[in-house]
Amino acid sequence: MKPFFKGVRKHIGKLDAATLREQYERVSDEFDFFETTLKSIREGIAVLDGEGEIVYENPFVGEILGKGGIKSLELPLKANSKREIKISYPEERCLEVQTVALERESTLVVVRDVTSEKRHAEEALAAAGERAVRDLAAGVAHEIGNPLNALSLNLQLLERDHPGDETIGICRHQVARLDAIIRGFLQALRPARACLAPGNVTEPLAECLKALKNRFEEKRISVVLDMPAALPVCAIDKNQLEQVFFNLLKNAIEAMEDGGRLQVAVRSNDEAVEVGIRDSGYGMDDEQLKHLFEPYRSGKAGGTGLGLMITERIVREHGGTIAAESKKGEGTLFTVSIPRIEKRIRALNE
Ligand code: ADP
Ligand code: MG
């Protein structure tokens, strides 16, 4: 197309009116075609002049950047560049912004929304990291198991020769303790598969609340319950959901060192049953929230940082989701959502 336009431009003085009109219409059609293309493209495209003023921008720029528009990005003019920018308004997004220096001092800007690409990459990385940690830890635990067994056997033999020896007794006791720790650790890393059966989500929740009643009183935590009497049936593994609620409630108690208020609310909608556990504890900052479900990220002395990882895995095995909202110094809300049984069946048939 370009050589053709150049030819027209060169001979423009010699063209008659009819040819000029024909060429003008052709250019106009071309323009419409490009404009429609640019309008429908799901990428922000803008052209800035030498002073950074907007010469052109397609509608997606406004959609992606909101009121601030392209100028809010403070881009280098008349230069080629590529960068990644995080914006929080109008929505949290990750953008890839490219500038290309054009002829006549102008700059072309291309904005691509890479939020979901990034999220998928992060999820894949987290999953791979989790797997690697799990395999490594399980390997180490397994290796420790063998010498422990040998120690235990030899201590038994020694004990036979020296019945009632106190030192041997202490050693056997300590070896048994180590064995229990390793066993628990392996169980945490490789939990049993969820064994799902129709049930009510509030049942394991109520069990946990009952078991922790004394702890709430000791810690001067007032508990506010909001549970409807009738709820849709979900496919649940009762024992595993008990572990979920126990972990969440234990964290909530630990976050309310000087007493506080615990609100537990159960709701249902067309898709799922939702359990909200809100505490008025010390809360978390954004950095903590970002790594919340990763293993070994405990913020407590003596914590393992495994509780929420296991919790998240169990909820995932139920086909559900878990989310946290928190503000440092104000408290935290965990929401566990378990799909309704009809929903699950529908999803499986689809
Ligand atoms: P652990 O309790 O052993 O530290 P978890 O996986 O249960 O491990 O929790 C990880 C971390 O997340 C905690 O150490 C704490 O910093 C933070 N956390 C979890 N729940 C809460 C909560 N309700 N309030 C404040 N911080 C929390
Ligand atoms: Mg915990």
Describe it:
The chain is elongated. The mean pLDDT is 87. It folds into four domains: 1-40; 42-113, Beta-Lactamase (2-Layer Sandwich), CATH 3.30.450; 120-189, Helix Hairpins, CATH 1.10.287; 197-349, Histidine kinase-like ATPase, C-terminal domain (Heat Shock Protein 90, 2-Layer Sandwich), CATH 3.30.565. A five-stranded antiparallel beta sheet has the order 2-1-5-4-3. Helix 4 (115-161) packs antiparallel against helix 5. It has eleven helices and twelve strands. With 350 residues, the chain is of the alpha+beta class. Residues 247, 250-251, 307 line the site of magnesium ion.
Which ligands, by name, code or SMILES, are bound? Answer: adenosine-5'-diphosphate, magnesium ion
CATH class of the largest domain: Alpha Beta
What's the SSE pattern? HHEEHEEEHHEHHEEHEEHHEEH
Question: Might you state the CATH topology name of the largest domain?
Answer: Heat Shock Protein 90
Give the N-to-C terminal Cα separation: 49 Å
**Can you tell me the overall shape?**
elongated
The low-pLDDT segments are: none
Give the CATH superfamily of the largest domain: Histidine kinase-like ATPase, C-terminal domain
The average pLDDT is 87
Q: Give the count of helical stretches.
A: 11
Summarize the structure.
The protein has 350 residues and is α+β, with helices and mostly antiparallel strands.
